[in-house]
Amino acid sequence: MRTRILRLTTAMSLALVAVVAISAAAPADTAEAQTAPYILARKGSDFSDFGGGGWPANSSGTVTVTSNSGSVIATQNVQADASGIFIWEGNLPQQYSAGMTVTASLGGQTRSLVIPNVTVSVDANTDIVTATGPSLDLLFLRCSLTNCALDQIIALNAAGNGAIDVTPQYDITAGEVLRITWIDPDGDSYVILHTVEQGAAPSFSSVTSIPARGIGIVVFDGGTLDQLAAAASAAGARAIYTTANGNWVGYTLGAPAFTNAGFASRFPGAIPAGTPFLLVMP
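Request: output the structure for the sequence above.
Response:
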């Protein structure tokens, strides 16, 4: 596993560290040249395209995409620039799916990338990214904003499943685009541009009736501390209580951060669904 991590991390530094601006309408990934040619295949919500780097300077050739049964889906003429990079921002007649093969032939050199079975889901309420892919592989998670702080690795288990809570580093918002990258041992990469959908607003399930005045016991549906406070405010509460080491710890809505520091320290990341709280009503 250590060898695999080092190999993939090296490949990522060669192929993706210099990935540049991604626009909402037509994202544009480019990568700095490396010694061996590589392919970069991208899949967005409504498009699939490709590019590459490390090819002979100013070389021309073709990129062919075939289905998992071997039938040709598309063939496109491409031209590398003086840095050996080519980008095709068209749109394939069908989206990438597992088992498709992207083959690039330029300047007498040929490389192929087989599209892996990678899926991604994102919960904007909890900032948790869940993914599936090849067993024990790594997925590299970034966002597409300039100078974005999000830079994480999702390690997949033997079953090919993985998840990460990015709350300590980044607040995921609906409508933004996250970039999830899988890299093969040769440095070729498959990039999924995932548009985050608006999740349901966090809310409570009431265990006891919430009175107009007094205390009500509720169960939170999951989310961040800010979302917990918003749900409590919507319910008309003035304070929220939980327990810490057998003692009650409170969060007063609208109070300064230092007043609520003890409560906030209990939930540095996403608050799991099913967490109970007391609401103090006016």
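Residues 91 and 272 are 40 Å apart (CA to CA).
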